[in-house]
C-alpha cells in the first residue's frame, strides 16, 4: 500500500495560525525584545528605516559639473618598462600608443629587438616607424645609461 501526499495550494493552516499569533502580539514581542536587548532592537529598526530613506541635501553644497572633460591632446613619450618593453605611450592617460620592441638577452648580451616579424613579433609597428628605427635593431645595451640614450634617440627620431 502507498500513501500519496500532495501539496495543496496556498499557505498551510499552521503557518496562518503562527502568522496571526505574531501579528496579534507584535507590540508585546517588540517590548520584550527591547527589554532583553536594552533598547538595541528598536534602535536597529530605526537605523534600518533611516538607511532606506533617500538622502536630503539639507545644508549641503551640491556641485554639478558638465560631464566628463574633453579628452586632452595626447602627449606621446617613449618609455622602457620594467619588463624591458619599449613603447610609445600617452603621458596624459598612461595608455600605450605604439609597441616598438623589447630589450632581449641572448648569450648574456642585452640588445634591442625592433618589433618586426623577422624578430618574432606578431604585430609590428607601421612601416614608417620601422624604417626610421631599423638601424637600431640589435643595438647592444650595456648599461642603464645606454638604455636611457636609446629612449632619447627614439624620441628624437619619431619627433615626439
Q: How do the strands and helices of this protein lay out in sequence?
A:
Layout: H1 13-24, H2 26-37, H3 40-52, E1 76-80, E2 85-90, E3 96-106, E4 109-114, H4 127-133, H5 144-157
Antiparallel strand pairs: 1-2, 2-3, 3-4
3D structure, described in words:
With 160 residues, this protein is of the alpha+beta class. The protein has two domains: 13-52, no CATH class; 76-157, no CATH class. It has five helices and four strands; from the N terminus they run H-H-H-E-E-E-E-H-H. It has helices at 13-24, 26-37, 40-52, 127-133, 144-157; strands at 76-80, 85-90, 96-106, 109-114. The chain has a four-stranded antiparallel β-sheet with strand order 1-2-3-4. The chain is elongated, with a radius of gyration of 36 Å. The mean pLDDT is 85.
- Percentage of residues in strands: 15-25%
Q: How many angstroms separate the termini?
A: 91 Å
Specify the overall morphology. elongated
Total count of helical runs of at least 4 residues: 5
Please describe the biggest sheet, giving its number of strands, its sense, and whether it closes into a barrel. 4 strands, antiparallel
Radius of gyration: 36 Å
Poorly predicted segments:
none
SS-based class: alpha+beta
Helix-strand string: HHHEEEEHH
Mean pLDDT: 85
Give the % helix.
25-40%
Lateral arrangement of strands in the main beta sheet: 1-2-3-4
Please give the domain count: 2
| Number of E-state strands | 4
